User: Which sequence fits this backbone?
């Protein structure tokens, strides 16, 4: 459940996790669209109402920007965590395999892996137009 402040707006500081941020972003977008729709329909019939509606539209736009900024940070943190998890998994897998393979076979596999890695690196650099 998304926490809301006394004025009915989303309490961005209380949001936790990507899921809550996405849900809050959806609510903010729907609210902004609804306000804009009402502004489009009513036009300038009531200047006081129009002024308040535009203020609400602007305020919800700020809320949406804050949510989007925090969501970007959370996604980047998740990406870094996944990279770290994959690195640790690869390291543990190598430890397990090293204990199950004969030393000579391990040495040959390492030489082959290094050659394949160098080939991939050179190909990547060539595609990027980088010369060493």
Assistant:
């Amino acid at each position: 459940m998304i926490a809301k402040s006394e004025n009915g707006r989303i309490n961005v500081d209380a949001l936790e996790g990507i899921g809550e941020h996405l849900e809050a972003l959806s609510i903010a977008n729907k609210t902004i669209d609804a306000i804009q729709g009402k502004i489009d329909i009513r036009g300038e019939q009531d200047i006081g109402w129009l002024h308040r509606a535009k203020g609400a539209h602007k305020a919800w736009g700020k809320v949406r920007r804050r949510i989007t900024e925090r969501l970007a940070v959370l996604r980047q943190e998740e990406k870094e965590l996944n990279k770290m998890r994959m690195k640790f998994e690869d390291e543990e897998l190598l430890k397990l395999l090293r204990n199950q393979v004969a030393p000579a076979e391990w040495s040959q596999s390492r030489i082959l892996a290094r050659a394949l890695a160098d080939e991939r690196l050179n190909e990547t650099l060539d595609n990027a137009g980088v010369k060493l």
